[in-house]
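Record minuted for completeness.

…
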Amino acid sequence: MGFSGGDRVTGTVWRGVVVVVAQGDFRQSSADAPRDEPQMAAAVGTFAGLLAALALMFGAVHPARPRDPGFFTRRPYGKWLVVVMGAACAVVGLSAVWAGLPWLLVPTLCGAVVAVSAWFLHRDLRLGRVGRTRPAANAGDRHAFRALSRLRERTAAAADTGDD
């Protein structure tokens, strides 16, 4: 079915441009028509909300336990959770847009992914599987410690002899 001269049609104008022409049940949209895709807005909002909750948790733990925050520190727990939050929100948001899924699935799936990741990360930190230093870093620390010890010995020996 197409339009012919003299047909009565209904046009929808958005921002000064005709975006939809319709006649009865037939409807034709242009490329300028606004798209209703709130999935990415939901993904960005979910990331912002999760980031705010993470900052609130770290902010609440710091005054409550200033000497021993446990695992609730920026490194390694906070860094990994921010990475997981960003990746989960981006992947779930883009997948929902491309698949045409409803926007309400985005916060639900992002929250579930971050919650499961936080649980696994907390468990691995508690068991000592994550957060270990690399052997190369330990070797460098030992060399620095030895050099500092030698410097202290020399300083103490010089102070004893008065040769400053």
In short: Strands lie at 10-14, 17-23, 26-29. The chain has a mean pLDDT of 82. The chain is about 60% helix and 10% strand. Residues 39-132 form one domain.
